[in-house]
Amino acid sequence: MAVSANRRMSGFSELGLGRAASFAGMLLLAVAIQSTLLAQATVLGVIPQLVLVLVVSLAFLDGERVGIVVGFFGGLLIDALLPGAVMGLTALIFTLIGYGVGLLRYMAPPDSVWTPVLTVAGASAVAELGYATLAIIMGQRWVSLEETVKIAGLVVLYNTLLTPFVFPLIKRVADRFRPERVIRL
């Protein structure tokens, strides 16, 4: 019986249990930093979206599966912290962004310094405008097109400025916990 338990535990470690735990830890840390420190660093009432930068970075590094899972749970945590938000809307947007960026990475030039920055900028614009559109469809109050574009522009600027600092850290953690071999079933 002890042999089969050891075999099962080694199977979990080969599937990347440490990697999943590191992604969960990064996600919780990003939510905590975004909701505390970055919430105090607002300009014109806009908070930098560190969780979105994390989702885009992990999807860019590890593909659409990781992007979907991290995007869903990251968006769900953000939705839980937003007062008056439609629960699940940010989760839907971040899940779609994670999937799209995960697919986009196959077409991106390898080892380009600008690719993650431009990817975060584009994903930030899509996320903000997509959120505004879906919120309107779901009956939320709409401020104006001018205000929506201003907020989207500021979020794109903030997230783009965060990316050169955050992406290398995320890449280092993701590479550190990368399994040496992967078992495909």
Can you walk through the features of this model?
This protein has 185 residues and is an all-alpha fold. It has one domain (13-176): Orthogonal Bundle (Arp2/3 complex 21 kDa subunit ARPC3). It is built from 8 helices and no strands. The protein has helices spanning 2-15, 17-35, 37-40, 50-62, 64-81, 89-104, 114-137, 145-176. The longest helix has 32 residues, at 145-176. It is globular. The model is unreliable at 1-15 (pLDDT under 50).
Task: Please give a quick description of this structure.
The protein is mainly α and 185 residues long. The chain is 76% helix and 0% strand.
What's the layout of helices and strands?
Layout (H helix, E strand, L loop, with lengths): L1 H14 L1 H19 L1 H4 L9 H13 L1 H18 L7 H16 L9 H24 L7 H32 L9
Tag the structure with descriptive keywords.
single chain, 185 residues, mainly alpha, Arp2/3 complex 21 kDa subunit ARPC3, globular
